[in-house]
Design brief:
Shape: rod-shaped
Structural class: mainly alpha
Distance between the termini: 49 Å
Largest sheet: none
Number of helices: 2
Helix content: over 70%
């Protein structure tokens, strides 16, 4: 009969231990599951941000390559613009030179025409009056003929000179007009180059702005990854503590 209370005590003790295990074991198990879930979520966030960082790095490389290409094109166009400006300046100098030559020829032509008009007028007057004076003067026929011959010769020479100078004048005018047209074409080409250069400069500026934005994004994502990795390390440490029974 004395063995019965002992048996009851042993059963009571076993049941107490069982109930205690039922109370504490789920708590550790639940805490471990929560930490493992947090670790898994943190690892997923790290992977997502690392994938985002790879995309940012790839885009940065693309922008750098595009920026280099655009800068190369800008450099080439700038060289072309400089050459074009030199050609335009050369055309301006040629035009100025032709204008000076044209002005000189105009002055010579005016002088020749004035001389021709003067001699022609004198010759005309002498031809009208000369015949009358000849009969009432002591001037010999040879002198009169010689005078008329000299004046007619001078007129002929002046006419030839005027014809030659007029031809030179017309040639210079044509050359000047051709130079002006060539300069206009160069101006149009230079404007096209200037427009292309402006577009390329705008494209490079846009690329540079995007590059700066990507640098900022890269820095932000890198900091986020570092923070998540630190958080992951803390979670892994807490999980280890929980699995060891809550002792550090």
């Amino acid at each position: 009969m004395k063995k019965l209370p002992i048996l009851h005590f042993i059963i009571f003790l076993l049941l107490s231990v069982f109930f205690l295990l039922l109370q504490f074991t789920p708590a550790y198990s639940t805490a471990e599951d929560e930490i493992e879930n947090e670790i898994e979520e943190t690892q997923e966030k790290i992977e997502e941000n690392e994938s985002k960082l790879e995309s940012i790095e790839a885009r940065i490389d693309e922008i750098k390559s595009s920026n280099y290409s655009v800068s190369k094109q800008i450099s080439l166009i700038t060289e072309e613009i400089n050459k074009m400006e030199e050609e335009i300046e050369a055309k301006d100098r040629e035009i100025e030179k032709k204008l000076a030559e044209i002005k000189e020829k105009e002055e010579i032509l005016e002088a020749k025409r004035s001389s021709l008009a003067s001699i022609s007028g004198k010759l005309y007057m002498e031809s009208r009056v000369g015949s009358v004076e000849f009969f009432f003067s002591n001037t010999g026929i040879d002198e009169v003929i010689q005078s008329l011959f000299v004046k007619r010769t001078a007129i002929s020479i002046l006419k030839d000179e005027i014809t030659d100078i007029t031809g030179e004048f017309e040639n210079l005018t044509v050359l000047k007009e051709e130079l002006v047209e060539e300069k206009k074409e160069l101006d149009v080409q230079k404007k096209d180059l200037d427009d292309s250069q402006d577009l390329l400069l705008a494209a490079r500026a846009k690329l540079q702005r995007e590059l700066n934005e990507k640098y900022n994004s890269r820095e932000l994502v890198s900091r986020t990854i570092n923070g998540l990795k630190s958080e992951l390390s803390d979670l892994q440490y807490h999980l280890l503590i929980v699995r060891q029974g809550g002792t550090s």
